[in-house]
Every structure is written in structure tokens, then in C-alpha cells.
Design a protein that fits this description.
With about 260 residues, this protein is α/β, with parallel strands linked by helices. About 25% of the residues lie in helices and about 25% in strands. It has seven helices and 14 strands. The protein has helices at about 15-30, 50-65, 120-125, 140-145, 160-165, 185-195, 205-215; strands spanning about 5-10, 35-40, 45-50, 75-80, 90-95, 115, 130-135, 145, 175-180, 200-205, 220-225, 225, 235, 240. The strands form four sheets. A five-stranded mixed beta sheet has the order 4-1-3-2-5. A four-stranded parallel beta sheet has the order 6-10-9-7. A hairpin with a 6-residue loop joins β12 (about 225) and β13. The longest helix has 14 residues, at about 15-30. It is globular and about 55 Å long. Belongs to the TrhO family. Pfam families: Rhodanese, UPF0176_N. It comes from Microvirga terricola. This is tRNA uridine(34) hydroxylase.
Length: about 260
């Protein structure tokens, strides 16, 4: 049996997020979906797996169902497959942030950088005087990254603020492009950098996963594999599953 895997997120105003936890768990349980979904006042984030019909039903509910009332109509989605169920159980968690930066003034629902589609990414990162930043953690960068990208050498996303403060200058670094696994970290990072005075900030829409899904390997500027936070461990071009190289992904965090 092949399972359908959905990596999803959206920054959206969910002041009632605590009330959504129980009903969302009931919906996922009824569909026999496993994985993790995070709910916060700023939106939803997570990766889940199930049968194709089950994942399609969940996506329809999130986008158009009565539970969220149309507030997730711009859901960012990446689909892939797994030959075995990549999660051990279902978790619906309440969080302060759906991806932890730790800066209360950063609000991607109000301000974010310029989205760049996967098809246009190669042209952008070849531009002169561009600073290309991998916003992921060091162990993820070690498995694969884009040619020429800077590794901030963080152990968690909340350290990104320190990297910006110590290594970057809005007066010197006029044009910045960022990327991450699925788009959520660099979307929040772009919002933070704009608040710090950086003028031109771009980020890869849909993240590395969308790039690997859409850009032919013969045209790729990506080198290596993309770490994912489940038991598949990593994906390559075409979102092809690679062998499990470490312990189950549910014990890790993409903060």
C-alpha cells in the first residue's frame, strides 16, 4: 500500500485555535490519518499521512469546511508518497508559534518578502550581489543545499535572529534570498528581516520540496537530498523517498 503524505501550512489569524484542537483531532482520527499538526493563533503547520482519499478529504475540510470557516483558503501544500506509514500516531498540538522564531513583532500575516516560484528560482539565485541563505538547521544543510548558499549554522530556527544580527547588514546586503524545506521558516524569516530594515527579501515559494517536485534534475541547482521530519528521512528530485538513515522523525523538531 502507498500512503499519501501532505506537508502543509498557512499563516492565518486563528484566535480560536484552542477550540479547534478537539474537532480537528476527531476529523483526522475518523480518516485514520497520522502525523503532527500544530495550531497557534498565527496559523497551522504540519505533516500528515494517510490514504489518498483520506488526505484529500482532510485538505478539503481545511480549505472549505465549517471548522476553519474559509480561513485556510490559501493553504501551502506539498504532496509526496511513502511505501510505509511514516508516522506512528496522530498528534494535534497547541503552540505559541507554528514555527518558533521568538520575536513577537514578526507577523507574516501582515508583511512577508517576495515569493519566488520554483520555475524562477534558478534565475534569481544567479543574480549578482545576491545573498543566498539556507534558513534550516545545520544538520539539514549538511544533507543537501543550493550551490552557493550560506549556512547560518543554527541548531534551531529561533537562533536565526542572532545570525542576522551578527552577520548581516541592511546597508550592505541589499538583496537577500532565502529557502527552507517547505516554505514556512523562510516566510517568517523574510518578515523578520523586513522589520530589521532589509530592503529586498525573496523566498522560495513552497520551499525545497516544491523545487524538487517541479524543476528537472538536469536544470537543478540543488545538491544532495532534502531532510524531512518523518521516518522517510530524506527526499530527492521528484520527491523520491530515500532509505531511513536515522531514528523516527517524530522525535525531531523543525524549530
Amino acid at each position: 500500500m502507498t500512503y499519501k503524505v501532505a506537508a502543509l501550512y498557512q499563516f492565518a489569524s486563528l484566535p480560536d485555535f484552542r477550540d479547534l484542537q478537539g474537532p480537528l483531532r476527531e476529523i483526522c482520527s475518523a480518516l485514520r490519518i497520522k502525523g503532527t499538526l500544530l495550531l497557534a493563533e498565527e496559523g497551522i503547520n504540519g505533516t500528515v499521512a494517510g490514504t489518498g482519499d483520506a488526505i484529500d478529504a482532510l485538505v478539503e475540510e481545511l480549505r472549505h469546511g465549517s471548522l476553519f470557516g474559509g480561513r485556510l483558503d490559501n493553504l501551502e501544500l506539498k504532496f509526496s508518497t511513502a511505501v510505509e506509514m511514516p508516522f506512528q500516531r496522530l498528534k494535534i498540538r497547541l503552540k505559541k508559534e507554528i514555527v518558533t522564531l521568538g520575536d513577537p513583532q514578526t507577523d507574516p500575516t501582515k508583511t512577508v518578502g517576495t515569493y519566488v516560484d520554483a520555475a524562477d528560482w534558478n534565475k534569481l539565485i544567479e543574480a549578482p550581489n545576491l545573498v543566498l541563505i539556507d534558513t534550516r538547521n545545520a544538520f539539514e544543510v549538511e544533507m543537501g543545499t543550493f550551490v552557493g548558499a550560506i549556512d547560518p549554522k543554527t541548531t534551531r530556527f529561533s537562533e536565526f535572529k542572532d545570525f542576522v544580527r551578527q552577520k548581516l547588514n541592511p546597508q550592505k546586503h541589499k538583496k537577500v534570498a532565502m529557502f527552507c524545506t517547505g516554505g514556512i521558516r523562510c516566510e517568517k524569516a523574510s518578515s523578520y528581516m523586513l522589520s530589521q530594515g532589509f530592503e529586498e527579501v525573496f523566498h522560495l515559494k513552497g520551499g525545497i520540496l516544491k523545487y524538487l517536485e517541479e524543476v528537472p534534475e538536469t536544470e537543478s541547482r540543488w545538491r544532495g537530498e532534502c531532510f524531512v521530519f518523518d521516518e522517510r528521512t530524506s527526499l530527492s528530485h521528484g520527491l523520491v523517498e530515500r532509505a531511513n538513515l536515522s531514528s523516527p522523525g517524530e522525535t525531531r523538531s523543525d524549530d
